[in-house]
Amino acid sequence: MRALLLAALCVAFPLAYAHAAALELVADPAAANGPVTEVDIKDMAFATPELTVKAGSTVRWKNLDPIAHNVHFRGGPAKGWDKAQGPMLNENESYAIKFNDPGTYNYICTPHSMVMKGKVVVE
């Protein structure tokens, strides 16, 4: 019975871990390393509303508006991720995410979702 339980855990744990690691929050956006793509937030819009990056790349959003905005992932590979809704960014603050898994990651600015939408396609 123990062997069966151990075998089940060996299969289930890597699958759960792989799903949880599709995205990684970069604790210090200014120190993001590896390939980094910049997306400015200005004039109530994501300056590059759709972009394509390679798996393992980081995207860094910087708010250049005097009002607060955020990045909130909706559905797709980010569904169920406990950090899918980023913090509100004041002027000149940044937020960065490393994309580990291929897929299409749609996002919005939560308080301005009718006009502020974006998409990251990870190959």
Molecular structure report:
It is found in: Periplasm. InterPro entries: Amicyanin, Amicyanin/Pseudoazurin, BlueCu_1, BlueCu_1_BS, Cupredoxin, ET_Amicyanin. By secondary structure, the chain is α+β, with helices and mostly antiparallel strands. It has a single domain (22-122), classed as Cupredoxins -  blue copper proteins (Immunoglobulin-like, Sandwich). The protein is built from 1 helix and 9 strands; from the N terminus they run H-E-E-E-E-E-E-E-E-E. It has one helix spanning 2-20, and strands at residues 23-25, 36-42, 45-46, 50-53, 57-63, 72-74, 94-99, 103-108, 117-122. The strands form 2 sheets. Strands 1-7-5-2-3 form a 5-stranded mixed sheet, with no helix packed on it. Strands 4-9-8-6 form a 4-stranded mixed sheet, with no helix packed on it. The N and C termini lie far apart (41 Å).
Fill in the keyword field for this structure.
9 strands; 36% strand; Immunoglobulin-like; five-stranded mixed beta sheet; 123 residues; alpha+beta; four-stranded mixed beta sheet
What order do the helices and strands follow? Answer: HEEEEEEEEE
CATH class label:
Mainly Beta
- Distance between the first and last residues' Cα: 41 Å
Q: Rg, please?
A: 16 Å
Estimated structural class? alpha+beta
Shape: globular
Low-confidence stretches: 12-20
**Could you give a short account of the major beta sheet?**
5 strands, mixed
Strand order of the largest sheet: 1-7-5-2-3
User: Which percent bin holds the helix content?
Assistant: 10-25%
Q: Per DSSP, what share of the residues sits in E-state strands of 2 or more residues?
A: 35-45%
Tally of separate helices: 1
GO molecular function: copper ion binding; electron transfer activity
Cofactor: Cu cation
InterPro entries: Amicyanin, Amicyanin/Pseudoazurin, BlueCu_1, BlueCu_1_BS, Cupredoxin, ET_Amicyanin
Protein name: Amicyanin
